[in-house]
Amino acid sequence: MKSAEIREAFLRFFEEQGHTRVASSSLIPGNDPTLLFTNAGMNQFKDCFLGQEKRAYTRATSSQKCVRAGGKNSDLENVGYTARHHTFFEMLGNFSFGDYFKRDAITYAWTFLTGVLKLPKEKLWVTVYASDDEAYDIWTQQIGVPVERMIRIGDNKGAPYASDNFWTMGDTGPCGPCTEIFYDHGDHIWGGPPGSPEEDGDRYIEIWNNVFMQFNRTADGVLHPLPAPSVDTGMGLERISAVMQHVHSNYEIDLFKNLLSASAAAIGCSNDDQSSLKVVSDHIRSCGFLIADGVLPSNEGRGYVLRRIIRRACRHGNKLGATGSFFYKIVAALVAEMGKPSRNSSSNRAISSACSRLKKSSSPKPWSTA
């Protein structure tokens, strides 16, 4: 199943459940000085969760473009060396603003994974926040997940509510307990279930997080109940595509195959699973979409992060033998691969214009020693 088919199946499924399909917002967060880049599907709905904005719908679904490079949630230095880290990715999500809550959110997730995508139920494990008995009971008593595949996760990060199963957007803002669904790749891959000493292995991979937005955290660390409990879910398109395409690494999915080939051709090297080639193919995605949304290389803020990403891509290209400017040459492949998700011709033109800007910004002289 191709990534585009998975994306459309997800959005269509939630439309059939009464959700409004909402276009991805810009990578530059609107009216939110606490965020450097849009890093989750819920960012554009923040005021809805806080009860400060009313829309014509109370259920929404989207495929949100996200960047995690720079700031608290940066994945930049991991990219290229793991199977799943990216600077740019798509987050599939469904959202409820005071409409449905835990039971329906959990049921929708299970139905989509096992009913629409036909994932084997015995391959799915579930975590809940340690004290969330309601979610635990829904999973075990209503959905029927065996208790041996259910795991409670407490405050495992050294502070109250600092947990893999208590989600926060940042230091302040909407937050709440969450339940995560993991896919078991099988005992031929090293790793243990979440919460175990071997949890950092690659056998059990989180594919979907359902956040139950119940609080607003203020700067003093106090959790204030939200006007109406809501739901925020996120499933990385690249991760679920790897599962559906029966590959272990996100870099083996259809979205990356052509970008890896184009990157190798632009550099003049082979395409042999090199970490540096993965860096280049990942970074062209974040750079192209950031520039399309109006970010330009500079010495501060968002522009500085973009500059760092370009520098890192060019440095890794040089490690593979690149001579002269090469990064901008991959933009045509990016547009061909990612043009449809941007959903309109103006976005495609904006991404295409990144070609000339990247040509200027990726000259080997400024970046080769980065």
Q: Hey, roughly how much beta strand do the residues contain?
A: 15-25%
The biggest sheet, with number of strands, parallel, antiparallel or mixed sense and barrel status, is:
9 strands, mixed
Determine the mean pLDDT.
Answer: 90
Helix content: 25-40%
How many beta-strand elements? 9
In whole angstroms, the N-to-C terminal distance is 39 Å
Write down the secondary-structure element order: HEHEEHEHEEEEEHHHHHHH
User: How many separate helices?
Assistant: 11
Uncertain parts: 364-370
Computed Rg: 20 Å
Class per helix and strand makeup = alpha+beta
**Global morphology:** globular
Looking at this protein, list some descriptive labels.
370 residues, alpha+beta, nine-stranded mixed beta sheet, 11 helices, 9 strands, 20% strand, globular, disordered C terminus
Can you tell me about this structure?
- The protein has 370 residues and is an alpha+beta fold.
- Helix content is 37%, strand content 20%.
- The protein has eleven helices and nine strands.
- It has helices spanning 3-16, 46-49, 102-116, 133-143, 237-244, 254-267, 275-292, 301-319, 331-342, 345-361, 364-367; strands spanning 20-21, 59-67, 88-96, 124-129, 150-153, 166-168, 173-184, 204-217, 223-236.
- Strands 1, 2, 3, 4, 5, 6, 7, 8 and 9 form a nine-stranded mixed β-sheet that branches.
- A hairpin with a 4-residue loop joins strand 6 and strand 7 (173-184).
- Helix 6 packs antiparallel against helix 9.
- The longest helix is centred in the C-terminal third of the chain and has 19 residues, at 301-319.
- The two termini are 39 Å apart.
- Mean pLDDT is 90; it is low at 364-370.
